[in-house]
Structures are given as structure tokens and as C-alpha cells.
């Protein structure tokens, strides 16, 4: 199956052929497809645009002006709902704004190292294709050269939701795990496979989206042991036969 990143890159390649965006090389062979219902990048909808070489600032994880709206939402004449996140704060404000437009949705922002406790909802039997049709990057027009105003709009990294495609009674569940990690705050990873490794800082988000049948319980935060600090494998290789204690990653 083609993942979000691959599919969006194909869309952007069409734009490049039309002269709207810079051309790009195709994804390398064997590039894994995105896992079901998961989006990794700078916020909820920017990583593929960045991959195409178009400058888009990463959403702030916190802070910013108290008066500034942390998200933008609009409803299109054809019924599609667009949104983008500029600052990861006030998830329930975003949730309510989407609900005001008639969308059954639950939005949560989860800190790094945590996750929502499993079992909070019953997942819909919708297929990957059905889920991707409901929730996806906003497609770029390919039938004409974009005006400057259109280019500015489409490079902002909008996500489109199609409420009319959701099964009756289903709820869209959006959970963004925030990854603002400072290298010095992580435990020393020590050695891996005989090489000294070092922590690296990381900023961004990993967004998971699902369709739920029936009610969705509140997100009860629990530890997520699968999340580990990113490391760089740039240390010296130990001499053959050298024995060192291997400290597990956090």
C-alpha cells in the first residue's frame, strides 16, 4: 500500500511537471509505506511539503503568543474541512471547532514518552483506503499553474477531512505525540554494537488517526516504553575484544 508520504510526493511531482513546484527525485526503492493511521513529521501536516523542498516552518510545540490562534480551521463549499496546527496547545479548542462544523472528532496532544492507555475505544473496521480517503493531505491542483496566492495557501500544510465519507456513528480520533526532546535531558545511551552513541535533540510530532465505533473514553496517560531518545551513531568503534557495559536506552 502507498503511504501518505509516498502519495503526497506523487501529487507534488505532478505539480512539478506543471511548473508549480520544484521537481524532485522519486522515493528510493523499498521505501516503507506509512503505517496505518500514523503520520510522522513537523506537526499534523507539514513533513511532505518539507520533503519537497518548500520552506514551511514547523509548528511550535508550546509557548507563542497567548492571543495567537494555535490552529486554523475552515470549511470548503464542497463540504471538506481543512485544518492546520501552528502551535500544539489547546487541543480541545481544535476539537470543539471541528465539532462546530459537524465533525465527530476527539483530539489529544500527548507529551513525549507517554501514550493514551489502550482500550479507550473500539476501532472501526474501515479499510486503510477508506480511512485515507477521510483524512489526508489537501491535494494540490494539477490542472493549472498556481497563482502566488494559491501557492501561499497550499504550502501551509493543510489536512483535509471528508466528513461525508465517515461511517454513521463513527468518531475520528486524532492523537498527536509531541517530541520536543533535549539531548542533555536523556540518559546516556552508552554503546551499541560496539560503537559509542550520543543523544540528539528532536522536535516535531507523530500523529495517529483512527476511526472509532461508539464512545471514546478520555485519554489516560501512561508510560510508552517504545519511545526512546534519538541517537547519533558517530562515536569511535571499540577495539576488537574490548568489553564495555551496555547501558540500555531509556
UniProtKB/TrEMBL annotation:
Keyword Transmembrane in record: yes
Compositionally biased tracts (Polar residues): 199-208, 234-243
This protein's name: Uncharacterized protein
Annotated spans, Disordered: 185-209, 223-250
Keywords per UniProt: Membrane, Transmembrane, Transmembrane helix
Membrane spanning stretches: 40-61
Amino acid at each position: 500500500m502507498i503511504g501518505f508520504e509516498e502519495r503526497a510526493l506523487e501529487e507534488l511531482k505532478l505539480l512539478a511537471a506543471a511548473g508549480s513546484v520544484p521537481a524532485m527525485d522519486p522515493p528510493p526503492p523499498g521505501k516503507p509505506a506509512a503505517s496505518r493511521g500514523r503520520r510522522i513529521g513537523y506537526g499534523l501536516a507539514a513533513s511532505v511539503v518539507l520533503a519537497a523542498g518548500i520552506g514551511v516552518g514547523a509548528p511550535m510545540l508550546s509557548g507563542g503568543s497567548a492571543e495567537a490562534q494555535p490552529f486554523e480551521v475552515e470549511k470548503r463549499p464542497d463540504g471538506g474541512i481543512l485544518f492546520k496546527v501552528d502551535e500544539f496547545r489547546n487541543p480541545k479548542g481544535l476539537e470543539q471547532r471541528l465539532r462546530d462544523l459537524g465533525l465527530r472528532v476527539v483530539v489529544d496532544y500527548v507529551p513525549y514518552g507517554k501514550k493514551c492507555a489502550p482500550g479507550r475505544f473500539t476501532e472501526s473496521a474501515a479499510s486503510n483506503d477508506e480511512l485515507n480517503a477521510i483524512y489526508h493531505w489537501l491535494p494540490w491542483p494539477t490542472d493549472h499553474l498556481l497563482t502566488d496566492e494559491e501557492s501561499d495557501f497550499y504550502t501551509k500544510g493543510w489536512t483535509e477531512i471528508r466528513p461525508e465519507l465517515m461511517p454513521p456513528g463513527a468518531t475520528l480520533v486524532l492523537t498527536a505525540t509531541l517530541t520536543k526532546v533535549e539531548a542533555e535531558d536523556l540518559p546516556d545511551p552508552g554503546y551499541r554494537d560496539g560503537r559509542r552513541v550520543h543523544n540528539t535533540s528532536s522536535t516535531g510530532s507523530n500523529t495517529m488517526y483512527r476511526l472509532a465505533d461508539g464512545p471514546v473514553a478520555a485519554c489516560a496517560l501512561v508510560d510508552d516504553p517504545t519511545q526512546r531518545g534519538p541517537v547519533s551513531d558517530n562515536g569511535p568503534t571499540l577495539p576488537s575484544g574490548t568489553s564495555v557495559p551496555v547501558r540500555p536506552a531509556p
